[in-house]
Design goal:
Elements (H helix, E strand, L loop, with lengths): L12 H5 L2 H28 L7 H6 L17 H14 L1 H21 L2 H13 L4 E4 L9 H4 L3 E5 L2 E11 L7 E8 L5 E7 L5 E5 L12 E11 L10 H36 L1 E2 L2 E2 L4 H29 L5 H25 L11 H13 L4 H13 L6
Parallel strand pairs: 1-4, 2-4
Antiparallel strand pairs: 2-3, 3-7, 4-5, 6-7, 8-9
Helix pairs in contact: 2-4, 4-5, 4-8, 5-6, 5-8, 8-9, 8-10, 8-11, 9-10, 10-11, 10-12
Length: 393
């Protein structure tokens, strides 16, 4: 499959940084997304349904196994994985979110905080699509303050743990086979992680209705009522919120990449529209103000791409810190929000209908702007690094 650089990659990051094999992988993924996902996703977005038929092809393409030693078929970089996240989001942010939950948060929790036996048992199943995962951290009354405000509890009873509490906004949770549940140990007050099969008695997941963003993503409210989990399903290396934070650190940079991809998707749709839509006897792309919108969007994409590339390079070098991921996420999502607005404006009234794609990216940007840490929380993480002073409360 020949690799064609994206026109929106104005400074040629892909061609410069990716190996030949990685470019081939990107080309294969792009061809499948364009042929099998792009033509159908608008309908699924409108119906608020997830296209389950894409899970196996994603697994077959290797997208669900790029990051983890137990499953990956060849060495690849965090930069490459970032471009995969961009590629998914430039076609549809909901598909990118599904992969981010499955591969980054669920599989990542087991890879980072699980035992060798847990990794060997679960990661190949998640990578093959045999098992669908979800990640349960956010709660109805605890989002940004999860480090201290977690209310879900875990109580040790012999060789089992009993979980009680509630989670909210949990992606994939209406159809997941397992959910990683983070709960506070009643004995020592520390946060611990558990692999919870969703068929366990006392576990229920209810779809959140009425969303205006990422509509195909099946977010759920989860309730846990005396859910019994064996010690063998406790993540053996998750002993405090620091271990939870390690998972988030590894995935937050890829959310920034997804934000760049969402901006690219809106920008590309706006460019295509500007070339074919005629007003006053000529394509609107020949009008100065439309060109300004497009140039502003391209500038945001290019600046954000430079930042996320560097964050992933730091990750590859083992030097990525919380503030690096936080700055990339806060900046890239803010610039994404501007870019999708300019793209929508360039399309006029047609910018609010699904037919021209921009409306979907415009709406989906709002979810990416908030999840995996709001702009405000990520700003305070960076502010603490700059000043040495925590300003969270």
């Amino acid at each position: 499959m020949p690799f064609e650089p994206l026109a929106s990659d104005f400074y040629s990051y892909e061609s410069t940084l990716l190996t030949e094999r990685e470019r081939e992988e990107i080309a294969r993924l792009r061809a499948w997304l364009e042929a099998d996902v792009k033509p159908i996703i608008g309908g699924y977005w409108e119906r608020a349904e997830f296209p389950m038929q894409i899970v196996q092809p994603l697994a077959d393409l290797g997208v669900l196994s790029y990051a983890w030693d137990e499953t990956r078929t060849f060495e690849n970089s965090a930069v490459f994985r970032g471009f995969v996240a961009l590629e998914l989001a430039r076609v549809d942010a909901s598909v990118g979110t599904f992969v981010g939950v499955q591969n980054g948060l669920a599989t990542g929790s087991i890879s980072i905080a699980g035992s060798k036996e847990q990794r060997e048992e679960w990661i190949p199943k998640l990578a093959s699509g045999e098992v669908i995962g979800a990640f349960g951290l956010t709660e109805p009354f605890s989002g940004s303050d999860s480090a201290r405000g977690l209310r879900t509890t875990a109580r040790r009873e012999g060789d089992e743990w009993v979980l009680n509490g509630a989670k909210r906004w949990i992606g994939n949770a209406t159809f997941s086979d397992i959910t990683i549940i983070w709960a506070k140990d009643e004995a020592d007050g520390q946060v611990k992680g558990f692999i919870v099969p969703t068929t366990t008695p006392g576990y229920t997941a209810t779809k959140i209705e009425g969303k205006i963003s990422l509509r195909p993503v099946q977010n759920a409210d989860i309730t846990l009522t005396d859910v019994h989990v064996p010690e063998s399903l406790r993540l053996q290396n998750a002993n405090s919120f620091r271990d939870t934070a390690a998972v988030l650190r590894a995935t937050r940079a890829e959310v920034a990449w997804a934000a760049v991809g969402t901006a690219v998707g809106a920008y590309e749709a706006a460019v295509a529209y500007a070339k074919q839509r005629e007003q006053f006897g000529r394509p609107i792309g020949s009008h100065q103000l439309i060109q300004e919108h497009l140039v502003n969007g391209l500038g945001n994409i290019t600046a954000s791409l430079g930042m996320v590339v560097r964050a992933s390079q730091l990750q590859d070098a083992g030097e990525l810190r919380d503030e690096h991921s936080a700055l990339a996420k806060a900046y890239a999502t803010s610039r994404m929000r501007e870019t999708v607005a300019w793209a929508r404006e360039a399309c006029g009234g047609n910018g609010i209908v699904l037919e021209y794609d921009v409306a979907r990216f415009f709406a989906d940007a709002e979810a990416l702007y908030s999840y995996e840490g709001t702009r405000e929380m990520n700003t305070l993480i960076v502010g603490r690094a700059i000043t040495g002073e925590a300003a969270f409360v």
